[in-house]
Amino acid sequence: MAQTGADVRETGRRLWRRGARRVRRTVATRRGLLAYLAIIGPGMVAANAGNDAGGIATFASSGAAYGYQLLWTFIPITISLGLIQEMCARMGVVTGKGLADLIREQFGVRWTMLVMLALLVANGGVTVSEFVGIAAASELFGVSKYLTVPVAALLVWWLVVKGSYRRVERVFLVMSFVFLAYIVSAFMARPHWGEVAHWLVRPSFSFETRYLFMVMALIGTTISPYMQVFVQSSVVEKGVTEEEYPMTRADVWTGTLFANLIAFFIIVSTAATLHAHGFTGELSTATQAAEALAPLAGRYAEMLFAIGLLGASMLAAGVLPLATAYSISEALGFEKGVSRSFREAPIFLGIFTFLVAVGALVAILPGLPLIRVLVITQLINGLLLPVLLVAITRLASDRKLMGARANGPVYNLIAWLTVIIISALSLLLIIVPFFG
């Protein structure tokens, strides 16, 4: 039946309205994506900085020594890390202040000094470990650490001090993606996935000192104290508003899941390539750790591992001193921010410069046991973590400070359980060697 002119016009109008709705949905989607890309950064950078040189060494050591047996720890660690990072990001959005600022205002000078001391000890040690990671990577390339470590320190310093915050953040984010090689390598190693799933959901525990040491190191490298300081200060510096906060929350959880997924595959790939073939000892060299990438890269495994280790170390070598400089400047009330000049923020940039210089100098000392140093620094993180978590949980639960954004019962329950469990593990690690 032939259509009349009115029918044709009506059909045209329906098609136009349908097309207009499709265009509006596409525009809304793109706006949402652009909004997410504008806000993304602090959560992704902070979480992935945990997969630094010490993190890679710890995960690889866990897989080599215990196979898949410690995979179960990633379920509670991931939940705890996401909640803790989200609490800090939320406090930054609501209050417009960094973590050290809030600790000083709410708890006074003594508690602030205790937290700052814990951060300084943990962050100072881990900053050294990042340059140790750079040294290990350079030696895999056959280049002397006495050349690469000073050059890397100068590059990190220039990037932060002379660049803008957004430029620094983009570079850090790009560096994060070198970790993806572990996912491919894990699949190519053909692990027994049934066994992987078994140990992922079945907790195991031992009072053996070595076992407790490794569990604490896994916690310390995944929920590192500097990550909380960095994510809150970064959110404040970006000026994220409460209306934009859902995007920041998505960024925090995306970063947490991405970082811990990479850590999971580092353990799987190492367990499938080293532990499955009879290695149950402690990793002592970067070459041993590189064997986990052999299924993907073959004889180029060392080179690929060196690239990943270098990227991971450079990422955290910038984030760690930066987080420390933020926290100390906030605690003492000094001007801060990577977008400021030395004249505007001399203490902030001076602390950053000092930590980078000391980290580089210690890392080039002869005779350092590289892998051992990397794992021990993560243990120190785990031991000092409860001091900071108590402050974070109390602040995020304060309704006078946070208003309607204060923690709910579920958040508080998980946060305090994390504090209690980590504290108990810390005590066990101290007591067991003495009393058996």
Low-confidence runs of at least 5 consecutive residues: 19-39
CATH architecture: Up-down Bundle
* Largest sheet geometry: none
By DSSP (H or I, 4+ residues per run), the number of helices equals: 19
User: What portion of residues is helical?
Assistant: over 70%
Reading the helices and strands in chain order gives: HHHHHHHHHHHHHHHHHHH
What do the pLDDT scores average to? Answer: 81
**Count of the domains:** 1
Broad shape: globular
Number of strands: 0
Task: Estimate the strand proportion.
Answer: under 5%
The CATH homologous superfamily is called Amino acid/polyamine transporter I
Distance between the termini: 93 Å
Quaternary state, please?
Answer: single chain
The name of the CATH topology is Amino acid/polyamine transporter I
Class by alpha and beta content: mainly alpha
Q: Just give the CATH class.
A: Mainly Alpha
What value does the Rg take, in angstroms?
Answer: 24 Å
